[in-house]
Fold this protein.
Amino acid sequence: MEIYWLLGIPFAGGIFLALWGNRGFAPEINALFSLLTLLAAAWLTVRIISGGPLLTEHDWFFIDPFNVFLVALTAFVAFTTALFSRPYMRIEQEHGRLSAARLRLYHSSYQIFIAAMLLALTTNNMGILWVSMEAATLATVLLVSLYRTPAALEAAWKYFILCGVGIAQALFGTILLYFAAEKVLGSGGVALLWTHLNEVKDQLEPRVLQLAFVFMLVGYGTKVGLAPLHNWLPDAHAEGPTPISAVLSGLLLNVALYAVMRSKVLVDGALGTDMAGNLMMGFGLLSVVMAAFLIKRQTDVKRMFAYSSIEHMGLVTFSFGMGGAVANFAGLLHMTMHSLTKSAIFFAVGHATQSAGTQLMAGIRGLIKTNPTIGWGLMLGTIAILGVPPFGVFASEFLIITTAMHEHPWATPFLLTALGVAFASIFGKVQPMVFGETELARLPYQPALTPVFVHLGLVLMLGLFIPPYLAAWYRQAAQLLGG
Amino acid sequence: MTLPFHLQIVNLLAALLLLISFAMLSQRRIVGLVTLFAWQGLALAVSTGLVGWVTGQHHLYYSAGITLILKVIVMPWIFYALVKKLDVDRDVEPMINIPTTMLIGIALVIFAFNLALPISQLAGTVTRSTLGIALACVLLAFLMMITRSKAIPQVIGFLAMENGLFFAATSATYGMPLVVELGVALDVLVGVFVLGIFFFQIRETFDSLDLKHMEKLRER
């Protein structure tokens, strides 16, 4: 029952806003629908915590501690982003960058995008998982090109084509999975249900599953932004409106990685080897290193933080690839920290670029003087994402690196170098943006930065103290991922 | 060894599918490309229906019906309308010349057959020998996407890839569960509509559908 509310509210929101999204009250309605979605997600979460995993509606939906945690995170960030986008998009409209009709498209697609991600997270069917990932891509293509500038159109085209090709590979992987499953479970709907597959995973033909996993990793990995398939990500993040950058970075990448993890559990069971884990470690490490060195060359602030997202998703992928209880725990924690921190940074960056009128870092100076709230928000966010204690990112990165030292010592120099390079380049670039000299006058309006500080507060809290029920929850989820 | 008559037909259609993929690689005009795409869809629909009839898997009829409606009627119609409205039916200049592309294509087909060999030996379906062809179609469509610089041929390449995947699904497993196939079809349809809107935006901004103009976002 909860599940219908969870999926139905954002879907209804999408339809409602498609009809009336150009009215003046649309931003509030958007936030309201997001709030209702968050409440539904909270209801579901409470039920899972008290009652254990839930298999419902003829086994069509399956919710366990692993995905309910992502559902809660998705609904939460979607809500805060809607709050941020309310004043942000109004100012964009006043600046004449957007018309009312495009705002309607924006609001409607935003809700549909959230609905598609929630469907991807809660479905039990590997085929529907694919369908909803593709739907999430389609919902955001027109959002990336919302400003209709040549660069935005190019970014959207790249996003569509690269993710389209990627996701076609994932479909081939899914077909191969079905091919292997059909022999054990018989043809028809049940052969793609994850829970059923999980029960018989040791009987699935290993050779086919091996190939299937390679296709799924490459396919969904394109959407995670793993190098060398990451080309679409910096462009889409830099050219789309800032609230979209925040949800792409904070949510969509997680959902894509979730799809990879669900297939990894099956493949590990069928193969009994570390093949899947090793592949993920390889891709993860490559992404971390490559992104860290590319960050140094960026001049556009949103592009820079997009590369930082690639780096962190690489780190999470690497961690899940190592497997085992500690590494999975660290991966889940890092996923949460990254989502909260990165979306907070994008909120702050959004206001900073809006007031400076440019995304080039050279043009943004002395935020602390023009507006202390934005300045501190950006500075604290940057410090948090760079893994400075006591923020939560430090805790998860520390866990990942110590586990790597213990189990795969060869990888540690790469990880430490990459994190060091990323630290030096990002901090060196953000510092003058916040504390540099400026001629600009103070901002006339007060930016809506409550979400930034709420996110950063949560990250700080989780760095200092993880409540026992949350830790237990993460541990259960880590257990489910096996390794 | 002689195969039953209906299987020979399925194999013939598979060969036709591969042939159309090659024809698409060599086609220079967009309208010709759209026509070939429609024919490919028709071959796919007929073979899906035939496999359904031979094996008694009746849900394949729905799948064949969806393919027929979407890929033979609706999408080519949208594309014809787009080409006419945007007035873009000039010669498509591929980035690599056509004979070279064909040679690369042949290499890809050999690769696909090698890759599919161990899997098709495992398949229990009557149509397993066609799995290699399906994979080859996917790779050829991919090649077409890489070598064309115009927007519409790239999208047709993308859809041809989807055709290859559907064919792989029918030949290896008698098709995916119906819900999944419906979902995929819906996604593809929505995708084409999104692209239609998108083409107008590109055209409006660049005054051309040639993606060569889109080379600003390079790694600096």
About this structure: Residues 18 and 108 of chain A are 5 Å apart (CA to CA). Residues 150-185 of chain A form the longest helix (36 residues). The first strand of chain A starts at residue 54 and ends at 56.
